[in-house]
UniProtKB/TrEMBL annotation:
<feature type="signal peptide">
    <location>
        <begin position="1"/>
        <end position="19"/>
    </location>
</feature>
<dbReference type="Pfam" id="PF16119">
    <property type="entry name" value="DUF4835"/>
</dbReference>
<keyword id="KW-0732">Signal</keyword>
<dbReference type="InterPro" id="IPR032274">
    <property type="entry name" value="DUF4835"/>
</dbReference>
<protein>
    <recommendedName>
        <fullName>DUF4835 domain-containing protein</fullName>
    </recommendedName>
</protein>
Amino acid sequence: MRKYFIALIFILTNFTAFSQQGELNCTVTIDAESIENSDKKDVMNQLKAAMLEFMNNRKWTTDEYKPEERVNCNIIITLTSVSGQSSYQATAMITSTRPLYNTNKETTILKFLDRKFNFEYVEGSAIYYTENTFNGNLTAMLSYYAYLILALDYDTFGKMGGTKYYEKARDIANIAQSSQGIGWDQLETNGRFSLIQNLTNTQFAPFREGLYIYHRQAMDKFLINADQSRKDIITVFDKIKTVYNINPTSVVIKNFFNAKVEEIINIYSQATPEMRQQVVSTLRQMDPLNADKYNRLLKL
């Protein structure tokens, strides 16, 4: 009888652990080298634990995720200064990846540098999110990025699949902006507000459609038919170009190419000279900052 009781406890314990598991598999790194106060470094260890709990154990959607289906993402925070007892100035690099079907590889979906990741954090406090409420800049930023990461991931698996999660991220941005949270300025073209504003703008629908074609139709099938996948990705570039022609300084387009530049070069390294020339010509126009990297394709 005892062994059945123990088995039942094991099942219930694991069920509880699974039910508390969220959709994200987020890692957090906090670089506090610029902070000389050792006590503050201890506080940052507490913050890291609170962030991991908040990002990974909260349910952000109504969908059920298996452990292997969780979305891998990473937040690297670099502290630049401390004001008072609990006010921190920082930058943060937020990245997320997605597995490629039938491979052991991942592709980068989001690679965004947040230059105003400023927040308040009191030692030992947990992080709580209440919908439609501004609970401080830290909570707003983490919730915003959680929904943004999930929205982008959904878009790569289903055409326009991330819409409701983009809308949640937009709602957070609107509330934070109206509450005068730091880093939510509408006029900051490379900021958080502009990023989600672009992604929820109907004019950017071709870009989001391109995310699905690039990942689900091309990259997931690359091992089956590489030539066709390369052709499909060229149609993605055409879709992005329609958006580029409307808004050539779009932060969304910059983010896409920052995340994909090396991958794109690898994809077309085995293409025909004519296809490489076509791709380089298109990409140098839309992504001039990486033009030298694309030029490598012309030297193969």
